[in-house]
Write a structure and sequence with these properties.
By secondary structure, the chain is mainly α. The chain has one domain. It has seven helices and no strands. The protein starts with a helix and ends in an 8-residue tail after the last helix.
Length: 172
């Protein structure tokens, strides 16, 4: 029950972060269709992660997996803006889910990190690129490579992002 609870919480956070600013649904999408889509997408991503991310995955395979999520979403084209999830939303889903799993000790360190506005601001990446609009890997990889150039020799990309990511925490 504890594992199920944590997994459900992780998916609530993952979908919330990936979908809240992205306007992914058509206006005619029903709540039942949205729920069905998220359930199926979750299963697809969990299957991918359990089949491939039990060991380190190289960058090319990871990018291919992001495209696979976008491709899979086309099965739900009737409820999605543009007929599918774009690369930006797909990378946010996979990278955020992997980040949570890595932090819990369930998977090896992921090859990348969730690219969003906050991390771009925190690393002083200019100009800020709207991750919700990424159609392919180009802008995404520009940000990943920008971080790669800032690494010290004892730090990975995922560790760098974890250190530089700051959630807004309320203060008293």
């Amino acid at each position: 029950m504890k594992k199920t609870f944590i997994q459900n919480e992780i998916w609530t956070l993952t979908f919330g972060a990936a979908f809240q600013r992205a306007s992914i649904y058509n206006s005619n999408a029903t709540d039942l269709e949205k729920k069905h889509f998220k359930t199926k997408l979750r299963g697809d991503v969990e299957n991918m992660v359990s089949a491939q991310y039990d060991k380190p995955v190289d960058e090319n395979q990871h990018i291919e997996n992001i495209y696979k999520i976008s491709d899979y979403s086309q099965l739900f084209a009737s409820i999605l803006q543009g007929g599918k999830l774009n690369f930006g939303v797909s990378q946010k889903i996979l990278n955020l889910y992997l980040k949570y799993q890595w932090c819990l000790g369930n998977t090896p360190e992921p090859p990348h990190f969730p690219v969003d506005r906050r991390i771009q601001e925190n690393i002083n990446f200019k100009p800020i690129v709207s991750w919700t609009k990424f159609q392919d890997k180009n802008d995404y990889m520009n940000i990943i490579n920008f971080v790669r150039d800032k690494l010290n020799k004892h730090q990975s990309i995922a560790e760098f992002e974890l250190y530089h990511y700051q959630r807004r925490v309320p203060t008293n």
